[in-house]
Amino acid sequence: MEIVAEFSPGKVHDVVVRPLAKYLDERGWLAELYRCDELAAETMPVMAYISMTQPGVARGPHEHREQTDYFCFIGPANFKVYLWDTRRDSPSFGVRQTIFAGVDQPLALIVPPGVIHAYRNVGRENGIVFNGPNRLYAGEGKSSPVDEIRHEEVEGSPFRLD
Fold this sequence. Notes:
Elements: E1 8-9, E2 16-19, E3 23-25, E4 28-30, E5 49-53, E6 58-63, E7 69-75, E8 78-85, E9 95-102, E10 107-111, E11 115-121, E12 127-131, E13 149-150
Parallel strand pairs: 1-9
Antiparallel strand pairs: 2-10, 3-4, 5-12, 6-11, 6-13, 7-10, 7-12, 8-9, 8-11
EC number: 5.1.3.13
InterPro entries: RmlC-like, RmlC-like_jellyroll, RmlC_Cupin_sf
Function: Catalyzes the epimerization of the C3' and C5'positions of dTDP-6-deoxy-D-xylo-4-hexulose, forming dTDP-6-deoxy-L-lyxo-4-hexulose.
């Protein structure tokens, strides 16, 4: 795969950014992460997991060949999300997009296959991220190769986090 040496800022085609509404009452708050009547069938999660990321720590950059990720950034920290479009057939090929999400701006973020992505906890406390991918990790019974191409340790990679 030929890698783009420089990316221009902009919006990555097919990435969906959706605000997550918090419904507050005297007990606290509630947020709907996803509903089957609001998602396309091809992005519907088939599993879910949450991760905790410590302040200053990044996850990624990596990409998937077939998997769509459905991230929800809800806090208690804030994250800087990085997206790079390396899909040759995309109208936003060569675009880099950054998004801030988390406690100050709760967001759902749908990242399609082929979009390289990463996020860094830019807050001062541990942050929680939900992901509902549309593919099972390592397939049925965890018996298939993992659909992930990692770019974290590639020397000279154009996928840099600031």
